[in-house]
Specification:
Elements: H1 23-41, H2 54-65
Length: 68
Amino acid sequence: MPARTPIRTHRPATDTAEVRLPWWAVVLPALAFAALLLLIVEPGQAHAAAGDPAIGRLLGHILGLVPA
């Protein structure tokens, strides 16, 4: 007597897709972004205090890339 093969039932197609991410898939990129942002804002004692702030240079580069 042959073994029965299970019958697969498919769910009807919907317009939305369900996406489930593990908690670390959201937290790790957010932590990396925050760490890099802190490095830009507070570069430490590496250069003299008389230089222009790094965030101003970053915004200047971004504004230079955006078409007017």
